[in-house]
């Protein structure tokens, strides 16, 4: 697992909720689905840069709190009729811990925010 960095434990992200990582390249939101899957997106909607971490998680998507755009976790794309995309990050779960691909993290996050 040398290519992966441990970010947090699954239990650190509430079900149907999010946690925010403040990384050198910006804010990344971790989302936990009802089925305990974890996804990571840049924490801004492609529309008006609303904080997706403050949105409503449903299925494998999040609804932006500003203008109700729905962003898919797997692709980062807005659902039609909206058009746009936010960056996704690779996440891996191992024995209840959440890991992010190290190539996508400039350095280990000092702390989880939010």
Characterise this structure.
With 114 residues, the chain is an all-beta fold. It is 0% helix and 40% strand. It has strands spanning 4-9, 18-23, 26-32, 38-42, 56-58, 61-63, 70-72, 88-89, 91-94, 97-101, 112-113. It has a five-stranded antiparallel beta sheet, with no helix packed on it. The radius of gyration is 13 Å and the shape is globular.
- Give the fraction of residues assigned to helices: under 10%
- What's the alpha carbon Rg, rounded to whole Å? 13 Å
Mean pLDDT: 90
Task: Report the uncertain regions.
Answer: 108-114
**What is the percentage of strand-forming residues?**
35-45%
Name the structural class. Answer: mainly beta
Q: How many DSSP helices? A: 0
What's the order of the H and E elements? EEEEEEEEEEE
């Amino acid at each position: 697992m040398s290519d992966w960095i441990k970010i947090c434990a699954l239990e650190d992200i509430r079900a149907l909720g999010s946690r925010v990582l403040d990384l050198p390249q910006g804010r990344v939101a971790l989302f936990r689905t009802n089925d305990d899957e974890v996804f990571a997106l840049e924490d801004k909607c492609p529309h008006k840069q609303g904080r997706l971490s403050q949105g409503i998680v449903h299925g494998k998507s999040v609804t932006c709190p500003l203008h109700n755009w729905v962003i898919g976790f797997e692709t980062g794309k807005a659902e039609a009729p909206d058009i746009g995309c936010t960056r996704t990050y690779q996440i891996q779960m191992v024995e209840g811990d959440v890991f992010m691909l190290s190539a996508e993290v400039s350095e280990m996050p000092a702390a989880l925010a939010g």
